[in-house]
Write a structure and sequence with these properties.
Blueprint (H helix, E strand, L loop, with lengths): L3 E4 L2 E3 L5 E7 L9 E6 L5 E7 L5 E3 L7 E6 L4 E6 L8 E7 L14 E5 L2
Parallel strand pairs: 2-10
Antiparallel strand pairs: 1-3, 3-8, 4-5, 4-9, 5-6, 7-8, 9-10
Length: 118
Amino acid sequence: QVQFVESGGGLVQPGGSLRLSCAASTSTFRNYVMAWYRQAPGKQRDLVARISSDETTNYADSVKGRFTISRDNAKNTVYLQMNSLRPEDTAVYYCNTFPRSVFDFDSWGQGTQVTVSS
């Protein structure tokens, strides 16, 4: 089972930026479609962005033009650059392969908390 360690979250004011990182414990990282997901309190876990092995990207409508997903296969790491943050972006952010069921409990890391507030 691949393990993921997310980092880079924190408290930021509306309009601010954060860069999340996710390190994966697999030597075949480059073969996976990787994704960032988020879960706000009381809500389901949603897909935010994904990036394929050929670096094709897709974004949820709510983050298009503000977030950028990227990957570094040499470091087995996927990133999420988040700009123009809004209070509604507040959530725990997770990375994982895509697609991935929220019920595949052993596959998820601890996530990283992002709080957007003045």
